[in-house]
Design a protein that fits this description.
The chain is an alpha+beta fold and 270 residues long. It is 45% helix and 21% strand. Helix 8 packs across helix 10. It starts with a strand and ends with a strand.
Length: 270
C-alpha cells in the first residue's frame, strides 16, 4: 500500500496504466476528491479497480490525500468474491462493501499519520479475509508462477505443474481471477516492460529483455494495454512515482529520484 498527498492548483488529468493487481483507491480528500472515467462510465471517491480496466483516467484539483492498495488477484478474490466480477471494471467501493466502505474511510480520515493509516487498512482487510472462499491452490500457484516469471511461462507447463488439464486450468483460472492464464501472462509481461521503459531503457532492449518477438510486438502490446506508444508510456505520470511508492516493483538498476512532482508518496509494502 502507498499513500499520496497531492497539491494541484490546476485541474489534473492522468491516465492510469494497467497493473497486475486489483487496486483499491481510497479517497481521503475533503471536498471534491478524485473522479475516474473508463468506458464512458464515471465514478467518484473511493473505488475498486479490477484487472484490465481499459482506458482509465483520473481527474482532480486542489489538495487531497489518497490511499492506494494493490491486491494480488488471489487475495482480492477472498475479499470481494470471484474477481471475475471486477475484471475490466471500476466500481465504487460503496457498491462493493456497502456501509462498511464509509466506516473504513472515516477510520482512515481520523488520523493524519500514514503509518497509522497503513495499520488501520491492514486491520480492515485482515478482518475481511475469509469472507469469501479462497481460490483453488492450483489457481493460486499458477498466478504466482506467472508473476514470478514476469509473464514468460507457458500455460501447458503450468497445467502440468498443478496436475490439471490445460482446459481445466483455463476454466478455473478465468472464473476465479477474471482473466485467462494467457492474458494474465501478457499483462504481467507488459507491466515489466512498462517499468523498464519508464526507467529510461530503449524500446529495442525492453522488447528483448521482456520476451517479445521484436520491437513491433512490444508496440502492439503497449497499445493494447495502455492505448499509448512506448515513448508516451515511458513518460506516464502513473509510472513516474512507482520507484518511490513501490520500490519492490521497479527495476533494480534504477536509482530513486527525489519526488519533486505534485504528490508526496509514503509507502508500506506487505
Amino acid at each position: 500500500m502507498a499513500g499520496f498527498r497531492h497539491r494541484a492548483p490546476a485541474s489534473v488529468d492522468i491516465s492510469l496504466v494497467a497493473y497486475p493487481s486489483v487496486t483499491l483507491l481510497v479517497d481521503l480528500s475533503e471536498g471534491a476528491g478524485v473522479a475516474y472515467e473508463t468506458h464512458g462510465r464515471h465514478e467518484h471517491g473511493s473505488v475498486v479497480v479490477g484487472l484490465l480496466p481499459g482506458d482509465l483516467r483520473a481527474t482532480g484539483q486542489g489538495v487531497g490525500e489518497l490511499l492506494q492498495i494493490r491486491l494480488e488477484p488471489v487475495v482480492a478474490a477472498t475479499l470481494f468474491g470471484a474477481s471475475a466480477e471486477l475484471s475490466g471494471t471500476v466500481a465504487a467501493l460503496e457498491d462493493v462493501w456497502g456501509r462498511d466502505a464509509g466506516q473504513a474511510e472515516n477510520r482512515l480520515r481520523a488520523t493524519a499519520s500514514w503509518d497509522e493509516r497503513f495499520a488501520i487498512a491492514a486491520d480492515i482487510l485482515g478482518r475481511r479475509l475469509g469472507a469469501h472462499p479462497p481460490v483453488d491452490p492450483e489457481v493460486a500457484h499458477a498466478w504466482r508462477r506467472t508473476f514470478a516469471s514476469r509473464g514468460q511461462v507457458r500455460v501447458d507447463g503450468l497445467a502440468d505443474e498443478v496436475g490439471w488439464s490445460r482446459k481445466r486450468l483455463w476454466s478455473r483460472f478465468g472464473s476465479q481471477l477474471g482473466i485467462t492464464p494467457k492474458r494474465a501472462a501478457r499483462l504481467v509481461r507488459f507491466d515489466h516492460a512498462a517499468h523498464l521503459l519508464s526507467a529510461g531503457h530503449a524500446a529495442a532492449r525492453v522488447a528483448a529483455e521482456s520476451g517479445y518477438v521484436d520491437q513491433s510486438h512490444l508496440h502492439r502490446e503497449v497499445a493494447t494495454f495502455a492505448g499509448l506508444t512506448p515513448t508516451a508510456l515511458a513518460a506516464a505520470p502513473w509510472l513516474a512515482v512507482d520507484d518511490v511508492a513501490w520500490p519492490a516493483s521497479s527495476p533494480a538498476s534504477v536509482s530513486t529520484p527525489s519526488c519533486d512532482r505534485p504528490c508526496t508518496p509514503s509507502s508500506r509494502l506487505g
